[in-house]
Design brief:
mainly alpha
């Protein structure tokens, strides 16, 4: 995921969340998500503790049952941006939409900022560092 020219990458003020965000952008979540830990030989399984799938970035944002309540708030925030942007239906959910909405070339800078703020809020999961 490479930022576009003209869009300054937004980082949260919280250092831990900023580091987690950078790791997610770089696909370097070796200290936290089991899929990456397994590939590094640091974990014996790729499965998430929730038992519902492989713990990768997509699972973290969209599937893990441990974060349902926070995910619902994230999805609602993105849907609000989507509808205020004048789009019909629902967005095509992806990790890119949450981490680098500017790369989709459909949102204004303010809308991208709003999506990122919702993503950063979601990433503050209690006891979870990426």
């Amino acid at each position: 995921m490479i930022p576009l020219v003209g869009y300054k990458t937004t980082y949260p003020r919280n250092r831990c969340i900023a580091v987690s965000y950078a790791r997610l952008l770089l696909h370097d979540t070796g200290t936290s998500l089991r899929d990456h830990q397994y590939r590094l030989g640091l974990e014996h399984t790729r499965l998430c503790e929730c038992g519902q799938g492989i713990e990768d970035d997509y699972h973290f944002f969209f599937e893990c049952t441990r974060y349902t309540e926070s995910r619902n708030r994230l999805i609602q925030a993105v849907k609000d941006v989507w509808s205020h942007a004048g789009f019909k239906g629902v967005p095509c959910w992806s990790v890119t939409l949450l981490l680098l909405p500017s790369s989709l070339n459909v949102f204004t800078k303010v809308q991208c900022h709003d999506i990122l703020m919702a993503t950063f809020t979601f990433s503050k999961q209690p006891g979870r560092r990426l």
